[in-house]
Design a protein that fits this description.
heterodimer, A: mainly alpha, 2 strands, disordered C terminus, B: Rossmann fold, Rossmann fold, 3 domains, six-stranded mixed beta sheet, 24 helices, 19 strands, 36% helix, 19% strand, globular
Chain lengths: 414, 602
């Protein structure tokens, strides 16, 4: 029977590919509401901002990373996670470099090394260049930098898990047009980067060096020209596809909208001022809430001017609630832990002590793992691990059958 | 459905109107083709249909344009969005959202259609255009043909009565172009959609047209008529029409099928002739042994550019004044004196390139010898551009090796490399930085270390009549290509690469390019061009290499490779099969000699 193995395998290939070829980016109905992912990520970010304990921060980064690893697709926007991780690392390194070069306000006795100090004039009093580098100062900078990096990684996770453009669909109608403009502006940057790369490559074709700052400056103008032209072309395309169509609304409604929105925003300003100043504690909150309500009503009414409808908006289901709630829970629990036992969340650096992992806050952070199990449809690992062959095949996809699918029939055969 | 009433458009700052006296009507449910040389205002006419001209572009429009009874004077483009769908030249500039399904829905959302209607139409359109498998894909990961179909689908979903398309197939490979045209024909036949479309590659579209509007020259009145009538007088016409005119067929055939039915007498007349074979049929080994002077077609075909050849000549060129060799005498490879094979200019051995995690090329072998013209063909995304990039060192090989003029391109300093190999990229504008042609030429001389004035002389040769002060942006597509070509040639690279050189060129510009390339090849340059244009490949290439999925699937003399392939065969080949004619130029020479012989006989 062994000789029948290969043909059976081939048959499995050809038959198996099409029906089982899974949608690489998940079925649309399985998409979690993007707002849920953002709530979850912002919850984690809030938690990160409440602590400087490196062990807790590392745990938090691991939690976010695990969820991203299990749930991200291979769409272009999902690749931004790597960019955010790199950005976080860069922030950490810069924070450390500043602490080493400029010194640290943290007093310390453990001197790691002494840099030559640059004498500065009198008017620069309080600033130091070089000098002693203490272990306490470096450690403090490390904790602080780690916190910033964790915040960035949380934002990156949200970007990777929820398509920013789909978040738009949840905006109120009156804001939709502005939202489209923002999203288009966001795609401007990647296009610009691609243009710079292409034109720097073209410099090589002219026999000029394709590296260095000068090369970058010389392609600047053509790149901007190209970007501008593309924007104009996109604006023309959007105009001819009905962007900015407005519906007729009675003048009375228009005036009410304007009054509500303006009054509401004024109220929000006054209310915020009241809440933040000590004197206005009594009137602050009510004014703020009233203003907010008026502004929201204005927005809702303003939506009538836009005749837009929405195509397949993401439903907010039980799973979305779970994911959102898990993020909120992490944030609330960490804030509570901070109020109860602040020392555990902020390990001291003077005197130097090894940070400990406090049990309850760590357990609270683990709640953030809930989406890894509650959120639906992580795309099959084989497709997320294997790169798609975009732009290569216009015909049938190349065989991407998983090992189990291939071997199963031959076993039956045997 | 669309009505132009004595329309003229003058852009701001222009003295003359771009188009004038445009007065025609497109009836409901017809597919009307707008043809004419570059720069006659085809895009202006198309833009006027949905009011982008003049609402968006500025300028003055005189006369009246009405679409489905709505006057564009009083309706802005967004208010016409429910009756007119517009797809521009570049589908990427058209997309607002980032996945296929959202893009299809975007127009309907703007119009405020009910959610259940939107859902139904999206599903219908996915099926109509064969996009169902791609519904969740990010648009950025699609191939050119798929993107073009998504762009068409995205304007179809609001069920417009009128579809306006600007060069829908120019960027597509032959198979993808047929796919798109089949969809358009289905819309016209099944849904009664009115289509107005401009296209340079008439050989692809003319058979689908119900009527043709010809803009013969800038500012001239358009000519309207049936395709056969207009083609009889049009300055731009596909090879099938050229052949029909040569053989005096009336009415002119527009499709290969029509032409084949009439071609029997012509085939009989030509039967005694063998198409001039530029390359022996035995294969690549023989080909390499061919000295460049054996390629007689370069000297017989069109007036080459003798001065250019002298300027660029690297090997002693054949005497340009020598009488053209009669096409009746096929060159016999065995009769040629044995020559030692010239050293290859470029040698690629089992080259593999990955772009990100995607393999773009796998185990590609290629040798290019001096004087040879090689066409790289294959569908969008097959790896043609990647292969060219590897030859100029823009991408580093993942495995295997690339040798160009004895150097590894990606390790060679740009200054040094330009003397070995030059590439004219898909968008020639990428190569041009300066404000004037003169400054561009001076920079090119400096970059190449050539004598001042070298580039300007090349420009004069390739692009007569362009003044020093002209801004490269103001040149037409064909002129810009010629300028970029001159800039690249300033360093006298023995190996010249061109990526999609005929995109956006009309037939006249293409003919100029063909004669330029022949002149260069006769001067000893090796030319590699990546192209979708089968007619161009038939005209200039000695050898054709077909890539699929990053692998070489065919490599051999042009006649051998393209004749056997339904999608890569030029029209003349299809009409005169089984005889192996490639171009109308060959046929016209054969007919001339025949007529001369007939005149002598009595």
């Amino acid at each position: 029977m062994a000789s029948h193995g290969p043909p059976a395998r081939g048959a499995a290939d050809t038959q198996g590919t099409h029906p089982t070829d899974p949608p690489r980016h998940g079925h649309r109905a399985d998409h979690l509401h993007p707002l849920a992912w953002w709530l979850w990520a912002l919850g984690l970010a809030t938690a990160a901002s409440r602590t400087t304990n490196p062990l807790l921060l590392a745990l938090l980064i691991a939690v976010a990373g695990y969820v991203v690893a299990t749930h991200r697709t291979d769409a272009p926007w999902a690749r931004s996670y790597t960019a955010f991780v790199k950005l976080g690392l860069a922030v950490l390194v810069i924070r450390l470099a500043f602490a080493v070069v400029l010194g640290s306000p943290v007093p310390g006795t453990h001197i790691l090394l002494t840099l030559p100090e640059v004498p500065l004039p009198d008017w620069a009093q309080g600033i130091r260049l070089g000098g002693r580098v203490t272990a306490e100062g470096v450690l403090f900078a490390l904790y602080d930098g780690l916190r910033l990096a964790a915040l960035l990684i949380c934002v990156g996770a949200a970007n990777a898990l929820a398509n920013p453009a789909r978040l738009l669909k949840s905006l109120p109608g009156a804001l939709y047009e502005a939202g489209v403009a923002v999203v288009v502006a966001m795609t401007f940057a990647p296009h610009l980067v691609a243009d710079v790369q292409r034109l720097r490559a073209a410099r090589r074709l002219r026999g000029r060096p394709d590296r260095g700052i000068r090369g970058l400056l010389q392609v600047g103008l053509p790149v901007l020209e190209g970007a501008l032209e593309r924007s104009v072309a996109l604006a023309a395309a959007m105009d001819s596809r009905g962007y900015g169509r407005t519906a007729e609304v009675p003048a009375r409604v228009r005036r009410t909208t304007a009054a509500l929105t303006l009054g509401g925003l004024l109220g929000v300003c006054a209310g915020t001022y009241g809440v933040l100043t000590a004197a206005g504690g009594a009137y602050g909150l009510p004014v703020l809430l009233t203003g907010l309500a008026a502004a929201l009503a204005g927005l809702r009414l303003g939506g009538r001017r836009s005749p837009r409808t929405r195509y397949r908006p993401d439903p907010w289901g039980v799973r979305a609630s779970l994911v959102g709630a898990s993020g909120a829970a992490v944030a609330v629990l960490l804030v509570l832990c901070g109020a109860y036992d602040s020392a555990a969340l902020h390990p001291t650096v003077v005197p130097l002590t090894a940070p400990e992992l406090p049990l309850w806050p760590a357990a609270a952070l683990l709640v953030g793992l809930l989406p890894a199990f509650a959120a639906p449809g992580p795309p099959p690992p084989v497709t997320s691990a294997k790169a798609p062959a975009p732009a290569i095949s216009t015909t049938a996809p190349t065989p991407t059958v998983t090992a189990p699918t291939v071997t199963a029939p031959s076993k039956e055969d045997a | 459905m669309i009505r132009f009433e004595d329309v003229s458009v003058t852009y701001e700052g222009a003295v003359e109107p771009s188009v004038q006296g445009v007065d025609f009507e497109v009836p409901e449910g017809e597919l009307v083709l707008l043809v004419g040389p570059s720069g006659v205002g085809k895009s202006t006419v198309l833009g006027a249909v949905n009011g982008l001209v003049p609402h968006f572009t500025g300028g003055t429009l005189r006369g009246r344009v009405t679409v489905a009874g709505r006057d564009t004077r009083t309706h802005r483009p967004r208010e016409l969005a429910d009756v007119v769908g517009v797809v521009g030249q570049d589908p990427l500039a058209h997309f607002v959202t980032d996945t296929v399904e959202d893009e299809l829905a975007y127009g309907m959302e703007s119009l405020g259609l009910a959610p259940d209607v939107m859902r139904r139409r999206v599903e219908e359109t996915l099926d109509l255009l064969g996009l169902a498998g791609l519904r969740d894909r990010p648009i950025a990961t699609l191939s050119g043909g798929q993107q073009q179909r998504v762009a068409i689908g995205s304007v179809l979903t609001p069920h417009p009565d009128v579809l306006v398309l600007d060069e829908p197939t120019s960027a597509l490979d032959p198979a993808a172009a047929e796919e798109v045209l089949a969809v358009l024909q289905r819309l016209v036949h099944d849904l009664g959609t009115t289509v107005l479309m401009a296209e340079h590659r008439l050989e692809r579209v003319i058979q689908y047209a119900d009527q043709v509007v010809l803009l013969p020259s800038p500012g001239a009145r358009p000519v309207l008529g049936t395709p056969a009538e207009v083609m009889a007088v049009s300055p731009v016409h596909p090879p099938v029409v050229t052949l029909g005119r040569l053989a005096d067929w009336t009415p002119l055939p527009l499709t290969v099928r029509d032409a084949r039915r009439r071609a029997a007498p012509l085939r009989a007349r030509l039967a005694s002739h063998t198409p001039p074979r530029t390359t022996p049929a035995q294969g690549r080994g023989e080909l390499r042994a061919q000295p460049p002077t054996a390629r007689t077609r370069h000297t017989t075909a069109e007036p080459t550019l003798p001065r250019l050849r002298r300027l660029l000549s690297r090997t002693p060129a054949p005497d340009p004044i020598s009488p053209p060799e009669p096409a009746t005498a096929p060159t016999d490879p065995s009769a040629l004196p044995e020559a030692t094979p010239p050293a290859p200019l470029a040698e690629v051995t089992s080259l593999a390139v990955r772009r990100g995690s995607v393999p773009a090329l796998r185990r590609v072998d290629l040798t290019v010898t001096p004087g040879e013209t090689l066409a790289l063909m294959g569908r969008n995304g097959a790896g043609k551009s990647t292969l060219l990039s590897a030859l100029v060192g823009l991408v580093a090989p993942t495995a295997g090796s690339v040798q160009v003029g004895g150097a590894r391109p990606h390790r060679t300093a740009p200054r040094d490399l330009v003397r070995r190999v030059g590439l004219v990229p898909q968008e020639p504008r990428d190569l041009l930085y300066a404000d004037t042609v003169a400054a561009e030429c001076a920079a090119a001389d400096r970059d190449a270390g050539a004598q001042p004035g070298t580039c300007r002389r090349l420009v004069d040769e390739l692009l007569p009549g362009v003044t020093d002060a002209t801004h490269p942006r103001d040149l037409s597509e064909g002129q810009r290509l010629a300028l970029a070509l001159a800039v690249v040639l300033t360093a006298r690279p023995p190996l010249l690469l061109l990526d999609e050189p005929t995109r956006g060129l009309d037939y006249a510009a293409k003919a100029r390019l063909v004669s330029t390339l022949r002149g260069l090849a006769a001067g000893g340059h090796a030319i590699v061009l990546a192209t979708h244009d089968v007619e161009l490949a038939a005209e200039v290439a000695d050898r054709v290499l077909i890539l699929a999925d990053g692998e070489v699937v065919a490599d051999g003399p042009t006649a051998e490779v393209v004749v056997g392939s339904p999608s890569f065969a030029p029209q003349v080949t299809k009409i005169l099969a089984p005889q192996k004619w490639l171009t109308t130029t060959q046929v016209s020479h054969a007919l001339t000699t025949l007529r001369a012989a007939e005149r002598e006989r009595p």
